[in-house]
Amino acid sequence: MSLQEITLTLNGETVTKPAEPRTHLADFLREDHLLTGTHLGCEQGVCGACTLYVDGRPVRSCITFAAACDGAEVRSIEGFETDPLMARLRAAFTKHHGLQCGYCTPGMLATAYDIVRRLPDADEPRIRAELSGNICRCTGYAGIVEAIRDVLANDPPPAQVLSLPRTRRAGTGSASVMATAAPADEPAVDLPPLDEAALADGVELTRNIALDAPADRVWAVLRDIPAVVSCIPGAALDGPMTGDVATGRCVVALGPMRASFVGSARVTLDEVACTGRVAGSGRDRLSRSRLDGALSFALHPAGAGASRLNLSMRYLLKGPLAQFGRPALVAEIADRILADVAANIAARASGQAVPDRQKPLNGLALLAAVLKRLLRIN
Ligand code: FES
Ligand code: FES
Question: Alpha carbon 64 to chain centroid distance?
């Protein structure tokens, strides 16, 4: 495979090394620069052990390509050696027994550093929620939470408003390496069209959902694409539709990591039969993951003030994000998302507010709920 010359600022020093396009940032640091403070656990973006900073924001270096960081400022745990705030965190971790084997600790400290800078008023539930993307198999988390609370209680640093990721140098091929909400000015990606034949290899989900709203009012929502998008947490359109094509973005949060899928979809509706199909593709430029999918729906009246929505979805996720969980779990999560979106559509059709519309889809919270359900079933 061809090598690509990568130049970045690493812990304050400019370094240049060739790397294969598939080399992830953690390997680039560990193997090529002998910075072994960045630990690798899952290598799937789940455990948080590899968390470090790119352009001032925490990212998972196991699912960030080194090539995507060309021109970026990378700060690994070694780069915090003389940082006063990190020194306080290290001392607090020691004082409160926030580590045992230490495997998770570099990633924990990186996330803790982000929490204390970003959320000076964080209480214990918020700290625990923010830490949900970092897994520790030893401590039981109590000491880690206590350490962060200790630093916040004693002279917390001023809250930092983090800027959006800066644009990479021209020609590097990746404008955004950050795990952040897709900003409205991020250009739409130019994706090859949806490969319908490839979808045959995808996961299929069907769902038959009873809605507490009459069919005519639900259809009024379904035929209004901006209204449907408003029922999908974390999703937004980029502007008016062009013919039958909608372009937009959807953010999925996985702990501190956010995948921002940007793409477009073709919408076809049959007003007489009350059926429709949405088919399209999106790409997360951070992880270079691609999602292709097609959702078909059919709406049926189901007695006074009620209706039934038959959903059939087929999707194919490719790239590093496809590996973050077992396919069955991913399917369960997608199933839960479908159910939530349907509930939001019913709420909107009934004139009720759609809750938390701006919140990104929280994959870890969904994962936790799904795991609980699976454990109960099995
Ligand atoms: S090693 Fe990167 S998240 Fe687990
Ligand atoms: S201290 Fe061992 S995994 Fe966290």
Answer: 13
Would you place residue 29 in the very low, low, confident or very high pLDDT band (cuts 50, 70, 90)?
Answer: very high
Nearest CA to ligand 2 atom 4: 136
The percentage of the chain sitting over the pLDDT mark of 70, rounded to a whole number, equals 76
Three-class DSSP category at 317: strand
- Residue 168 pLDDT: 37
Closest ligand 2 atom number to CA of residue 98: 1
Integer Cα distance of 69 and 64 in angstroms: 8
pLDDT number for residue 365: 55
Give the amino acid at 256: P
How far is 39 from 106, CA to CA, in rounded Å? 7
Pocket lining: 45 vs ligand 1, CB cutoff 6 Å: yes
Measured distance between the N- and C-terminal CA atoms of the chain, rounded to whole angstroms: 45
Q: Is 138 exposed, middle or buried (0-12, 13-18, 19+ CB in 10 A)?
A: middle
Mean pLDDT of the chain: 80
Q: Which domains are seen in the chain, by residue range?
A: 1-178 (3.10.20.30), 198-377 (3.30.530.20)
Q: What is the pLDDT of residue 312?
A: 85
120 touches 161 (CB < 8 A): no
pTM greater than the 0.85 cutoff: no
| Ligand 1 close to Cβ of residue 199 (< 6 A) | no
Q: Is the pLDDT of residue 378 over 70?
A: no
Q: How far is CA 229 from CA 18, 70, 225, in A?
A: 42, 34, 6
Is the Cβ–Cβ distance between 174 and 285 less than 8 Å? yes
Cross-sheet strand order for the sheet of 13-19: 13-19, 4-10, 73-75, 51-54, 57-60
Any atom of ligand 2 within 6 Å of the Cβ of 101: yes
Sign of CA dihedral 366, 335, 181, 52: positive
Is any ligand 1 atom within 6 A of the Cβ of residue 179? no
Question: What beta strand segments (E) does the chain contain?
Answer: 4-10, 13-19, 51-54, 57-60, 73-75, 203-211, 235-237, 245-254, 257-270, 275-284, 289-301, 307-318, 361-362
User: Averaged over 163-184, what is the pLDDT?
Assistant: 33
